[in-house]
Amino acid sequence: MAEAAPFAERLLAWWRVHGRHDLPWQHPRTPYRVWVSEIMLQQTQVATVIPYFERFMARFPDLLSLANTTIDDVLGAWQGLGYYARARNLQATAERCMTDHDGRLPDSAEALAALPGIGASTANAIISQAHDRPAVVVDGNVKRLLSRHAAIEGWPGRSAVMRELWAQAETRLPTAHGADYTQAVMDLGATVCSRRNPRCNECPVRHDCQARRQKRVGELPTPRPKRDIGQRRLYMLVHFDRRGRVLLERRPPAGIWGGLWCFPESESRQALAERFRLSEVQLKALPAVSHLLTHLKLEIIPLTADGQRPGDTGTQDLALGVECAEHLDWFAPLQWARLGIPKPVLDILESTRA
DNA sequence: AATGCGGGGTC
DNA sequence: GACCCAGCATT
Fold first, then answer.
1. Measured from the CB, is A284 under 7 Å from any atom of strand C?
2. Is the Cβ–Cβ distance between A44 and A82 less than 8 Å?
């Protein structure tokens, strides 16, 4: 009996018939477009990314336009996509390409991985797709596909498991068709070897899938261990001036919502009142907003001075000697959408308009 | 080697 | 509500 075709050949044959060939970053498949798409796709699903990618390309069609714009413009284009550090890294990388790489993205995985926001897997994903060279990519799809096909146990967040996945991926790499193979493993993971209800009977590598043989497809990959998450209460001052502009503060570059504009906030209601020369009794709470992060549950209590609303006149103007520096400023409604504002803050902002 | 980052999809 | 997603940077 003839030996089965190599893993990669079966995937490529499957992909030519069943794979995705119409993703926006595939046409044209330039290094710049591939790079931007890979950054957007980090921890973010394809369907979510597509409209952002189209808008981003219309606004920043090339490396130079991205390097020459402001961070606020990039954050504005990123608003709603999450993981805003990616937007800052994107622009930092564009600038580095101008200064250190002759105005282009480097064409080696090592040089790419030295740039902000690009790790080993993303570097290889860019190389394989932009230059059609085979390179190991281990993303969520590949982790799932390989942990099943080779029956690899353990949560991929553990380094030993990740090493094994990387080694498996390496041995399966073809010697040609690098771009199509990368797309093929991702497509197979996304559409056939899906997390729930995998369609094993349509899989081109089902005949030597170890998880399937052991009837353990449903148990692999091993899920992330559960853990308790903490809870934190946060007060935010929602205040408008007579012209309907809202007071926002730019957050420090590191940490949650780094570099984004938020209401002035504090964990202490009293500290917030003191900072803006308000008495605590003046502060009226709006309905709380709950925001869930991986490791933390935030309860955000929006506070307004005397129930003030935009357009209100005659209320005290919070003169409070707010010295609007670069990190503290007033913004008109038309400016909001171009700023980069975290989702819960935007929700509060919009609820005050309604 | 483990943890923080964040919004959305999906069941 | 639980769990995951085209991971990386930081500690």
1. no
2. yes
Chain position carrying tokens 């690098």: A178
**Per-residue pLDDT tens digits for A170-218:** 999 999 999 999 999 999 999 999 998 899 999 999 999 999 999 999 9
In terms of phi and psi (left: phi > 0; alpha: psi -120 to 50; beta: otherwise), the region of A116 is: beta
Could you report the per-residue pLDDT of A308-324, keeping only the tens digit for each? 544 444 444 554 445 56
* Residues of A with catalytic function: 38
Q: Cβ of A189 < 7 Å from strand C? A: yes
Give residue for tokens 């209460």.
Answer: A233
Complete edge-to-edge strand list for the sheet that includes strand A261-262: A261-262, A246-250, A328-331
10 Å CB burial of residue A130 (0-12, 13-18, 19+) is: buried
- Domains along chain A with CATH numbers: 7-219 (1.10.340.30), 230-353 (3.90.79.10)
Please enumerate in sequence order all residues whose Cβ is within 8 A of that of A220, keeping only pairs 6 or more positions apart, or say none. Answer: A144, A147, A148, A151, A152, A153, A211
d(CA A207, CA A203): 9
Nearest nucleotide to A124 by CA–C1' distance? C6
Residue A231 has phi, psi (to 5 degrees) of -125, 140
Closest CA to A252 of A92, A94, A85, A96: A85
Token pair belonging to A100:
């250190």
DSSP string, A171-194: HH--SS-HHHHHHHHHHHHHHTS-
Query: Quick check: A51 CB within 7 A of strand B?
Result: no
